[in-house]
Automatic annotation (TrEMBL):
Keywords: mRNA processing, mRNA splicing, Nucleus, Repeat, Spliceosome
Biological source species: Anaeramoeba ignava (Anaerobic marine amoeba)
Domain Pre-mRNA-splicing factor Syf1-like N-terminal HAT-repeats: 60-204
Entry-linked Pfam families: HAT_Syf1_CNRKL1_C, HAT_Syf1_CNRKL1_N
Protein name: Crooked neck-like protein
Gene Ontology CC annotations of this record: post-mRNA release spliceosomal complex; precatalytic spliceosome; Prp19 complex; U2-type catalytic step 2 spliceosome
Primary subcellular site in the record, as a coarse category: nucleus
Top-level taxon of the source organism: Eukaryota
Keyword Ubl conjugation among UniProt keywords: no
Family designation: Belongs to the crooked-neck family.
Amino acid sequence: MNQLPKQFKPKNKNAAKIQITAEHLLKEALAHQEKQSRPPEQIIMDEDELQEYRSRKRRNYENAIRRTKFNMGSWVRYAQWEASQGELIRARSVFERAISTDYTHVPLWLNYVDMEMKYKNINDAKNVFDRAVSLLPRENKFWYKYVYMQELLGNVDDARNVFKRWMEWEPDEAAWLSYIKFEIRYNEIQNARAIYEGFIRCKPKISTYLRYAKWEKKYGNPDSARKIYERTALELGEDILDESYYCAFAKFEEEQKEFDRARAIYKYGLDHISKKQAVQLYKEFISFEKQNGNQTEIEEVIYSKRKFQYEDILESNPRDYDIWFDYIRLEENHSDINRIREVYERAVENRPPAKEKRFWKRYIYLWINYGLFEELQAKEITKAREVYKRSIEGIPEEFSFSKIWIMYAHFEIRCKDTKAARKVYGNALGRAPKDKIYREYILTELQLGNVNRCRILYEKYLEFSPANSEAWIKFAELEQSLGETNRARSLFEIAIQQPLLDAPELIWKSYIDFENQMQNFDNVRNLYQRLLEKTEHVKVWIAYAKFECEIDMIQNARDIFKNADQILKNQSKKDERSLLLDSWIDFENEFGDSDSLLIVQQKLPKKILKRREVPGFAGNIEIEEYWDYEFPDEKEEQANVKFLEMAKKWKEQKMKK
């Protein structure tokens, strides 16, 4: 077995300067192709040679159609050759044989007719057309050419009869329009009108009616055109009408200077077709009002446009509550009570899809605005109460929404039904107790002068939320305002003893301010000392010292500063100590002398910029700059410590020797 040659590996793999394409290959092949030789021209000298030539051609054609019987091109070429030889009978025979083979081939019939017309056999051509349109009545080419031939020969009545026969088959619109144009060419307007009537019966569509009306207006019959527009709505039905109909009808009335009728058509159309299908109608209406309307009418069309935009957005996203708010405000400025109520009802029907508070927050405000609308604008108190009830019933149990409960209670108070308001508050606290509801309920009872109810509510409030510092303070302030100082003090005492408070510093401050206001200074001093047992924050020390200053106990204040300075020094709280010394300096400037001021000044620290290593990104160590305080007394102590360490080290070395 012969081995295949190894694959050739080109040495130069770079691209060639000229890239060979398929086009190059085809051109090269064509250039090398040998020219086909043509048969020599034959000159016929006598009748025998002519008959021999015809016999040979007929034999070739017969062989061709025998091989490809259904190739109609071969039949047509055969028949056309016979006609060119003057053998029309033979040509007709070929065409008839072809038709018997495949009568549905349209070009076959057309070539047959063209042959008869070429040799001016008019009657034969008519007969061929009659047969063609009888066998293939849906082929418009036959009808068009048949009519053209009759009209070209001047046979107008015959052409009209052909059109009538054609229309019986209910062809497409182009055929009807051709018939109408034919009658118009001969100024037969009444005939054209009758054809239009048949046209709209055959093709009952908006476009055909509009075309008919436009034609009537063109020929100076506006009343007939208006009747056709009106017939369109009656015969087709309002459900089928689209914006093209309303635009055309309104423009017609506008051209006839019937502006009120045009405006009514625009508005009727906008109210009876979907918003997505009325985009162009809105544009036409706006343009119409800008040209022919007054200020009120222009505002009305702007309102309609915005309403259309809102409806379009809400159709795709009915839970876009911001759009509902804008839509409601628009209706409140332009519509009556019933229309506004209808929009509110549509809005609140679109409940949030999930029980997540972020979805419900905006939705609840729809109910709130709805209730306010019924109460303040519609003056329907009963319906407003019904709206509040429905809104509360629709709130999921997972949420409280204190605002709507409070709004409902305030509504009942405005209606002078305190019993109903208390019931609302009670239901709210039983279903979803919240700090805000407790506060509003207590405030309401306080405004009504029911102090005992306020005390009971505060007790319930503190049982519900014992860590609420504000509740303790407000309860104590209530007792203080009533002159019950012992009850207020007892409340403060209970409050500061609570194991967990959200803001204990507020309670201590309020308690101290209360005792200070009562001028029980020993109690105040005692409270500060008790507070310092819990926390030694620098602000407590400063507030304690300021208190002693206010009651002219200067030395006590100085002792507090000294004690605080020593404690903060021991705790190494440099920032807090620096803040304390600043307050101490201010104190000595106001109440001390130069010696006491100098003592404090000698304690003031020096602010130093230092650096330290801190963990950085990706585990790297970074250098951070920070401010530190260096106190003079701490520096001396550090020097003494260093001296003692050196002495101890020297003693150890001496002992080793």
